[in-house]
Every structure is written in structure tokens, then in C-alpha cells.
Specification:
Elements (H helix, E strand, L loop, with lengths): L11 E4 L6 H31 L6 H18 L2 H9 L3 E4 H34 L4 H4 L2 H27 L8 E2 L6 H5 L7 H35 L2 H30 L6 H33 L1 H17 L1
Parallel strand pairs: 1-3
Antiparallel strand pairs: 1-2
Helix pairs in contact: 1-2, 1-3, 1-10, 1-11, 2-4, 2-6, 2-10, 4-6, 4-8, 4-9, 6-8, 8-9, 9-10, 10-11
Length: about 325
């Protein structure tokens, strides 16, 4: 169906979510709620241990604390809205609230891409240039790198949100998604979005292509260096970066799978694919933040020990 050639001021949007599949809503409400609670607990513990445990006052754990705090912010900007949509037949959101939610989600996603790159650089310096590591990764430098990641992600979010909210919208205000995802919102626009498409392409290069290339090259050097280390030191060297590498593979691997999957032209199969795409995207937004603290706890002895000390300290204080 063609879009109407008239526009009207949009005061609110309707989030379609899983409204066409009411039987799934209750099941996914419970599932997503449990996953969200695990995210808050797991990442909250990581933030606390990186702050309270003096043994973790190192660049690697400072970035890990930032990543955990970011995952809490990212999921909190969208999951409560998703949960509410499962309980409400037609979830509505005001135009301004939609813009804020869109900006927060975009900023968190962009910042995470850059943080993962910074963490790869930290592991590269620690393993490939250990003698220069204390000088190059000084507190001033690693705080600056983390702050820059947040600032660039936030700036890109402001640009894209501003470009989107200034556009005229058609009479249809139904967003076929759980939240105000920027691509879903752009489908409702009744104007030329070529500037948005170009800026999105530039952003994809900055936040996806460049970080993936940078991380890949960093780990090539890391692996080559580890292979030259004597046998007794290989396991220790690899254990310091295996958790980060696992998180990177899950984060970018799932992202690549989502956007490279071919679209179906058959109407019946297209509806099923639309549902599967929604669910894959939904789980991508909660599974990765939920797995991050689990992966780092299982693969890093220092984090595991700090978490146990935190729990033991709480039990002792009671």
C-alpha cells in the first residue's frame, strides 16, 4: 500500500510489538523479565566489584565496568517499554518520549561498539607491548578513551535523532516494532530520507566496519604474540583476552546474522519472517548484555574472586 501524500502532526506513536500474536505475549513477558533481572544483577555486581575491589583498579576492569554500566543503561532504555507492550494491546508512546528512547538506544549501541574496540586495544598493548603498557595505558589515557567512546556515541545519537524528528510523518503512526527503533520510525516518514540514509551509512562505517577491522587486526597481532610465548605463559596470556574475544564474536556475529539474512518475497512466509526478525532482534538486545557478566565471571579468575569476596562481605556485614 502506498503512503498517503499528506502529512499531519504526529503526537504519539503506536508500538505494534506482538499485538498480532497475543498467545506469545505472556510467555515472552515472563522470559524477558527474568532475563532483564539477570542483566541488572550480573552487570550490577560487575560494576560494584570494579569500583570496590582495589585489585581490579586496572584499565581492563575499568572498561569492563563501563561496559556493564552501559548494558544496564541500554536494556533499561528499552526493556521496560517492551514489557509494557506485552501487557497492553496497543502500546502508545508520545512523540517526545519516542525521540528520547530512540536517542538513548542509539547512543548506547554506538558506545558499546567503540568500547569493545578500546578493550581490544587495551589487550593488544598488554600482550604485545607489556613494557610500554603502564605508560601508554595510564589512568588519564584510559579514562579519556572511555569518555570519548561515550561522547562519540552520544553525539552520533543526537545527530540521527535530530535528523529523524525533523521529518514529516504520514497519517500512519504505527511502528511495527517493540520500541522506537530508528529504522522502523523512518518507514513512517513522508519525505526524502536520502540524507538519513547517507548519514546512517557513514555511522555504520564508524561504529561497525572500523571497529570490526580494528579488533580483527588487534587479535591477529595478539594471537601471533601468544604463539611466540613459552608454553607455561600461553594459557595465562590467552585467558586475559578470551572473555573479550567471546563477547565480540557474540555481539558482532549476531548483528551480522540479523542484517545479512535475505528477505522473503512470499506474503505468507514474509509475515512469519517478520515475526522471527522481531524476536531475534528482541533477544539480541537482552541476550548479549545478559551473557557479558557470565562470560567475564567464568573466564576471569580475578573477577570471579572479587565477586565471591563481595558476596562474602555482604554476608559478614549482615
Amino acid at each position: 500500500m502506498e503512503k498517503a501524500n499528506w502529512t499531519s502532526p504526529v503526537m504519539q506513536f503506536v508500538l505494534l510489538g506482538l499485538s498480532d500474536h497475543p498467545k506469545l505475549e505472556k510467555m515472552f513477558f515472563v522470559l524477558i523479565l527474568l532475563m532483564y533481572l539477570v542483566i541488572l544483577l550480573g552487570n550490577g555486581v560487575l560494576v560494584l566489584v570494579t569500583i570496590l575491589d582495589s585489585h581490579l583498579h586496572l584499565p581492563m576492569y575499568f572498561f569492563l565496568g563501563n561496559l556493564s554500566f552501559l548494558d544496564i543503561c541500554y536494556t533499561t532504555s528499552s526493556v521496560p517499554l517492551v514489557l509494557d507492550s506485552f501487557l497492553t494491546p496497543w502500546e502508545t508512546i508520545s512523540f517526545s518520549a519516542c525521540a528520547v528512547q530512540m536517542a538513548l538506544s542509539f547512543a548506547m549501541a554506538g558506545t558499546e561498539c567503540l568500547l569493545l574496540s578500546v578493550m581490544a586495544f587495551d589487550r593488544y598493548m598488554a600482550i604485545c607491548n607489556p613494557l610500554r603498557y603502564p605508560v601508554i595505558m595510564s589512568k588519564a589515557i584510559y579514562v579519556y578513551l572511555a569518555a570519548s567512546s561515550w561522547a562519540i556515541g552520544g553525539a552520533a545519537s543526537v545527530v540521527h535523532t535530530s535528523l529523524t524528528t525533523r521529518l514529516p510523518f504520514c497519517g500512519d503512526n504505527v511502528i511495527n516494532y517493540f520500541t522506537c527503533e530508528i529504522l522502523a520510525v523512518l518507514k513512517l516518514v513522508c519525505a526524502d530520507i536520502s540524507i538519513n540514509v547517507i548519514s546512517m551509512g557513514v555511522t555504520n562505517v564508524i561504529f561497525l566496519v572500523v571497529p570490526v577491522l580494528f579488533i580483527s587486526v588487534s587479535y591477529v597481532f595478539i594471537i601471533v604474540t601468544i604463539l611466540r610465548i613459552p608454553a607455561e605463559g600461553k594459557k595465562k596470556a590467552f585467558s586475559t583476552c578470551s572473555a573479550h574475544l567471546t563477547v565480540v564474536i557474540i555481539f558482532y556475529g549476531t548483528l551480522f546474522f540479523m542484517y545479512r539474512k535475505p528477505k522473503c518475497k512470499d506474503p505468507v512466509r514474509a509475515d512469519k519472517q517478520d515475526l522471527s526478525d522481531k524476536l531475534i532482534s528482541l533477544f539480541y538486545g537482552v541476550v548479549t548484555p545478559m551473557l557479558n557478566p557470565i562470560i567475564y565471571s567464568l573466564r576471569n579468575k580475578d573477577v570471579k574472586a572479587a565477586a565471591k569476596n563481595l558476596v562474602a562481605w555482604k554476608d559478614f556485614s549482615q
